[in-house]
């Protein structure tokens, strides 16, 4: 049992059959080097007899059943660690996909904004060019028209289409004045 505990603590414990064979082989190797009558030889013979009896004892069987449970627990831990690692990898991949999708969304939005900006810039440029063209055309038309043959814009002006200036008529005073009173009396006298 001490040999098994030693192997267990050395983290070198293998299968039950291998460990039993290893123990027997080591005892046999020691036995070859010592005479059976020597103190060490007697101990080795005792250990071999005890091993035959202990190999199937409750204590050794319990040791090996604990080792089986230990291996099962160790395997479960490894499986859980692997599952955890896979879940972490899957989570990282999902986070990467989310980041990638967000980046795509930002790029699409940026592209659309840029395209709208370009379209707006083209539209503004076109309007400015059209306005400039209209002003240029108006200036050219103004230069092409002779100054005395201006077309009336519909407002009353002081020039006729043929260029003749119109004089403003004298204002009519329709209210009677003091001078008019004397003359009206004369008119009244004459009528009598």
TrEMBL record:
Residues 13-40 form a coiled coil. It comes from the Eukaryota. Residues 177-192 have a biased composition (Acidic residues). Residues 122-192 are annotated as: Disordered. Residues 123-148 have a biased composition (Basic and acidic residues). Keywords: Coiled coil. This is Uncharacterized protein.
């Amino acid at each position: 049992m001490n040999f098994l505990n030693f192997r267990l603590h050395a983290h070198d414990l293998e299968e039950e059959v291998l460990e039993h064979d290893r123990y027997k082989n080591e005892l046999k190797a020691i036995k070859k080097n010592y005479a059976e009558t020597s103190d060490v030889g007697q101990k080795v013979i005792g250990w071999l007899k005890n091993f035959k009896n202990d190999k199937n004892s409750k204590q050794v069987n319990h040791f090996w059943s604990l080792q089986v449970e230990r291996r099962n627990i160790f395997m479960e831990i490894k499986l859980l660690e692997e599952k955890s690692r896979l879940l972490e990898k899957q989570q990282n991949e999902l986070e990467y996909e989310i980041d990638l999708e967000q980046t795509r969304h930002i790029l699409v939005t940026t592209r659309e904004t840029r395209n709208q900006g370009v379209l707006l810039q083209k539209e503004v440029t076109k309007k400015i060019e059209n306005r400039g063209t209209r002003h240029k055309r108006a200036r050219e038309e103004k230069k092409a028209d002779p100054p005395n043959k201006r077309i009336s814009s519909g407002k009353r002006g002081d020039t006729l289409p043929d260029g003749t200036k119109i004089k403003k008529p004298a204002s009519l005073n329709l209210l009677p004045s003091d001078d008019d009173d004397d003359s009206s009396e004369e008119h009244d006298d004459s009528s009598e």
